[in-house]
Design a protein that fits this description.
The complex is a heterodimer. By secondary structure, chain A is of the alpha+beta class. In chain A, 33% of the residues lie in helices and 33% in strands. Chain A contains four helices and eight strands, in the order E-H-E-E-H-E-E-E-H-E-E-H. In chain A, the strands form two sheets. Chain A has a four-stranded mixed sheet, with helices on both faces. In chain A, strand 7 and strand 8 form a beta hairpin. The two termini of chain A are 21 Å apart. In chain B, a hairpin with a 2-residue loop joins strand 3 and strand 4. Chain B contains three helices and five strands. By secondary structure, chain B is an alpha+beta fold. Chain B has a single domain, classed as Beta-grasp domain (Ubiquitin-like (UB roll)). The chains are: A alpha+beta, B alpha+beta. At the A-B interface, helix 2, helix 3 and strand 7 of A face helix 1 of B.
């Protein structure tokens, strides 16, 4: 399991290739990438992500461990950024390696559902009019019940 | 014990972290002590349904005991991903 919490941008392709390298017994690699989405009005200047150093790593490792217990996986990768980001920048990625695609897809979805509401990150959106904390959505919490 | 605040809780209280001398038995007791201090704490803790709490970096509930706890953190629901 690889969990990284960092300020710096990451290279999605390089990370995915390095993660999958040397696992010739794994037939499936699934990656998901979260991107800073502009607002419907198209006026997002930047997003700032705050996190809880220490707890963040603990929470992500716990979620990744649970995925490894539930599905037949070769490995799990989670990279999540914090700090200042512009619209279009990549915020985070998860990758799962498995012998077969079903485990890789399901585990990646599970990781994302839990990471959204159980890992201590908070997003703040800045526009010319001011700044607002992004509110959690009821459906994010509801998404956990399917697991 | 160290008390940490994140996101708008941090902004409302006006600091990210403080050391609190307390004999609070539960998280709720600690919340009541903080609320009684100043208006900014009252403002931050006005609606507990909008808050989450972690004790020693594990998510927990407001009725959780604080015996032996080193660190308590208050924050809004998380928005990762």
């Amino acid at each position: 399991m690889i969990v990284r919490v960092q300020d710096a941008a990451f290279d999605l392709g390089a990370e995915a290739n390095a993660f999958a390298a040397g696992h010739s017994d794994m037939g499936a690699l699934v990656t998901f990438t979260g991107i800073v989405r502009d607002l419907a009005r198209g006026d997002l200047d930047r997003m700032v992500i705050e996190h809880y150093p220490g707890m963040t790593e603990r929470a992500l490792e716990k979620i990744a461990r649970e995925a490894q217990e539930r599905w037949s996986l070769g490995d799990v990768l989670v990279i999540h950024r914090y700090g200042d980001m512009a619209p279009g920048e990549q915020i985070m990625m998860v990758a799962t390696l498995a012998p077969h695609r079903k485990d890789a897809f399901e585990a990646a979805e599970f990781l994302m559902d839990y990471l959204k509401s159980r890992a201590p990150f908070w997003k703040k959106e800045f526009t010319a009019d001011g700044a607002d904390w992004v509110e959690s959505k009821a459906e994010d919490e509801d998404a956990l019940t399917r697991w | 014990m160290d008390v940490l605040y994140f996101a708008w809780v941090r902004e409302r209280i006006g600091l990210p972290k403080e050391t609190v001398e307390t004999n609070a038995a539960t998280v709720m007791d600690l919340v009541e002590e903080l609320r009684a201090r100043e208006e900014r704490y009252e403002a931050a803790f006005a609606d507990l349904s909008a808050l989450r709490v972690a004790v020693d970096q594990d998510l927990t509930e407001f009725d959780a005991p604080l015996e032996g706890a080193r660190e308590v953190a208050f924050f809004p629901p998380m928005t990762g991903g």
